[in-house]
Amino acid sequence: MWHQTKITEAFGIQYPIFQGPMGGGFSTIELLAAISNAGGLGSFGAYTLTSEQILETDKEIKLKTDKPYNINLWVSDVDERLKNYPAEKLAQVAALFKPYFDELSIPVPELTVEIPSKFDRQVEVLFQIRPKVFSFIFGIPSAEVLKESRKLGIKTVGAATTVDEALLLEAAGVDAIVAAGFEAGGHRPSFLKPAQDSFTGTFTLIQQLKTKVKTPIIAAGGIIDGKGIASALTLGADAVQLGTAFLTSAESGATQEHKNKLLSNSGEYTVLSKSLTGRLGRMIENRISREVKFETEVLPFPLQTKLMAPLKAAALVQGKTEMISYWSGQNNMNLKNWKAEELMQWLVSETNKILD
Q1: pLDDT tier at 265 (50, 70, 90 boundaries)?
Q2: C-alpha to C-alpha distances, 249 to 105, 161, 165, 181, nearest whole angstrom
Q3: What is the pLDDT of residue 333?
């Protein structure tokens, strides 16, 4: 049976279908619980949360599901170049974006480069709550963190955009590797080379990784239906991870405007841009992504996020959607605005028709 894989056995789930761990408010407890209760692996992107917020979130998760679930963190949640970042550069970038703020009649926010990492404290809390799965991007946790995860029975999942990254993850002893293809929405989680130098497509990356590593592979990027699931499993993936497909579900934390964009013709046009957060990510093309060219220097992550947050909020209130960046994968032509449980049932049914 297609749904019986190394991943389902090791992770204790019925179907090898993961919900992408969307951070920044897109993950919700309701979405996670719906996917896990339907036999997949629900996820929560927690990289923006404080340790206290993670604790409270986990308490609510456990009230809604007793099935396995995943908590996702960012190993590198503050860019190295933010250290000693020159004030004059900060001022230059702020000036570049000031016309957009002026158009919305709001001030450019006052910014500080003093932004501490949350990761170490978040991991301490993770060991307290003990989710079945701990996934991470933008690097590899220390050997001590991975050892403690194994000791506590927490399965670890790292993300790779290249073969070299996958080899390092395997050497570190992770339980599974996400093959993060070029087509995926959101941030490119590259950690060895710049993201723009790591543009391998999902189906090519699956085959490359299956040749080089023995660790189970989770395919991610451009998969939205049973055909995509069947294709990924046929090429050797042990599971799939869907992000944009679940972003339009009733339970996701995306705004209705975001969902409408994904479900409309405008969702056909996606770009890779650093303009929203300072790190390269795939989103629906908008005015800012067109006008702020790829090679333009923006602020390091997450300082660029803090610059753009009030602009996004004001644009949303004023209906200036051409200034708002909406995350999206490259393949969004057949998305469903269903409840997550219905979407899971459809995915399983469609994959059954193809593979069984």
Answers
A1: confident
A2: 34, 26, 32, 22
A3: 86
Query: Are the CB atoms for 305 and 216 separated by under 8 Å?
Result: no
Residue 110 forms part of a structural domain: no
Q: Where are the beta strands (DSSP E) in 144-200?
A: 155-160, 176-180, 186-187
Residue 266 has pLDDT above 80, yes or no: no
Q: Kindly state whether residue 341 falls inside one of the protein's structural domains.
A: no
Residue 227: CA atoms inside 13 Å, Cβ hemisphere, count? 3
Is-contact 216 236, C-beta < 8 A? no
H/E element, 339: none
CB of 273 closer than 8 Å to CB of 290? no
Count of domains forming the chain? 1
Long-range CB contacts (< 8 A, 24+ apart) of 286-295? 286/321, 286/322, 286/323, 286/324, 286/325, 286/326, 287/322, 287/323, 288/100, 288/323, 288/325, 289/325, 292/96, 292/97, 294/196
Helix (H, G, I), strand (E, B) or coil at 216: coil
What is the CATH classification number for the domain harbouring 148?
3.20.20.70
In a domain, 99, yes or no: no
220 falls within a domain: yes
What is the pTM for the complete model shown?
Answer: 0.96
**Residues with Cβ < 8 Å from 345, sequence gap 6 or more?**
38
pLDDT-derived band of residue 24, with 50, 70 and 90 as boundaries? confident
